[in-house]
Design goal:
This protein has 387 residues and is α+β, with helices and mostly antiparallel strands. It folds into 2 domains: 3-222, Rhopdopsin 7-helix transmembrane proteins; 233-385, Alpha-Beta Plaits (2-Layer Sandwich). It has helices spanning 3-28, 33-55, 62-87, 94-113, 118-138, 149-176, 184-222, 233-250, 264-271, 273-289, 314-330, 359-375; strands spanning 254-261, 296-299, 304-310, 343-350, 381-385. A 5-stranded mixed sheet has the order 2-3-1-4-5, with helices on both faces.
Length: 387
């Protein structure tokens, strides 16, 4: 077995192994579309490298094998890019990207059939790869750019692949124009040395992103309430502590409201727990509709919720919490259960946050205010100032 064959066997094996890992991940983690697209891309890549193994013993004409490898490679790169777009939540553009891969294949086949010079036959491949890597790179430039080491690594890798394909494109154009002379035998050797790094790197990028995404998913699940989709107590505490620290450093005001659904045990007893769960979700929607995206909202107990508002003075906090109480009260007639649903609120407003204002201390003050609302007849707001 010569070195070339060993390299192609290794490439096919690596691609098949990555595809297998992706298929397992796709099945075990909710069957995300982008993981399946990446798996298909590596199945195609494995098939592409296997064609060289058929050509070496003479089972397939070498020229035909190279032509088919480039055509299949175009579809593999397109599926990889589709996966990047699906992962980013963008329009996957499956039709246009696969159509572009098909057009690339037609151009490649035509150039091979008319026996175009090797440099000319390489130009479409470089252009196509350059475009696909650029589109994949753009999916990492949105809301999560630079937020994770994994994405920065993949950005750097894709930029390297783009530069590599750009260099190949410039070299092939220069050679086709007669400006330079390239020894294709040496170029082939260089390509064989680079291919394992490129394919291995591409597979590694995919696995890195997959691992980071799964870790993010696990963190979100650990901090999310299963019923309402809000932050659970752990997630709320983490977010609230971060906001308290920021308010302390930058002298920002905050307000914390603790909310309790009135007589919720009676609702459960009368209408059953499924109805109670629906009511809790409805209360959450009403409260969420009255706060800003940057405010923190979580479920910290069975029927108890907490909202932390940033950059609000006493009057604004009072108006906001009264609006939230009205939102909950006004939802009762719309519920199928026709249960009178109200909530009591206890709030503390801090115009200035000091080191003594820990989350536990603020929560205690808000809880005390909530107790006063309950004692005064429920369905009301009690607000205290913490300084």
């Amino acid at each position: 077995m010569n070195a070339g064959m060993a390299i192609f066997i290794g490439l096919a094996s690596v691609c098949a192994l990555v595809a297998l890992v992706l298929l397992i991940a796709w099945r075990e983690f909710g069957r995300p579309a982008h993981i399946m697209s990446w798996a298909v891309a590596f199945v195609l890549a494995a098939a592409m490298w296997s064609l060289d193994l058929l050509a070496r013993p003479g089972w397939l004409d070498t020229t035909v094998a190279i032509m088919l490898m480039r055509c299949i490679g175009g579809f593999a790169v397109a599926m990889d890019t589709i996966g990047f777009r699906q992962r980013a939540g963008l329009g996957e553009a499956r039709g246009p990207l696969l159509s572009a891969a098909a057009l690339h294949g037609v151009i490649v086949a035509t150039l091979f059939m008319i026996d175009a010079p090797s440099a000319v036959r390489t130009i479409p491949l470089a252009i196509f790869n350059l475009g696909m890597f650029f589109l994949a790179l753009r999916t990492l430039g949105g809301r999560r750019k630079g937020e994770r080491v994994a994405e920065r690594i993949v950005e750097s890798g894709l930029m390297f692949l783009m530069l590599l394909n750009f260099a190949v494109l410039i070299g092939m154009i220069a050679m086709a124009a007669g400006m330079v002379s390239i020894d294709f035998a040496k170029l082939h050797v260089a390509t064989l040395l680079l291919l394992p790094a490129i394919m291995g790197g591409t597979g590694l990028f995919t696995i890195i992103l997959l691992s980071a995404d799964l870790a993010d998913q696990a963190r979100r699940m650990a901090a999310t309430d299963a019923l309402t989709g809000l932050l659970n107590r752990r997630g709320f505490d983490e977010a609230a502590n971060a906001l308290i620290g920021s308010a302390r450093r930058y002298r920002r005001s905050i307000a914390l409201a603790v909310i309790d659904v009135d007589r919720f045990k009676e609702i459960n007893d009368q209408f059953g727990h499924p109805a109670g769960d629906r009511i809790l979700c409805a209360v959450c929607r009403r409260i969420a509709a009255g706060i800003r995206p940057r405010d923190i909202f979580g479920r910290i107990g069975g029927e108890e919720f907490a909202v932390m508002l940033a950059d609000v003075d006493f009057a604004t906090a009072q108006r906001t919490v009264e609006m939230l109480r009205n939102n909950v009260e006004s939802m009762a007639p719309s519920l199928p259960e026709a249960a009178p649903v109200t909530a009591s609120f206890g709030m503390i407003v801090l115009e200035r946050v000091t080191p003594a204002h820990t989350l536990s201390a603020i929560l205690r003050a808000a809880d005390d205010a909530l107790y006063r609302s309950k004692a005064a007849g429920r369905n009301r707001v009690t607000i205290v100032s913490g300084g």
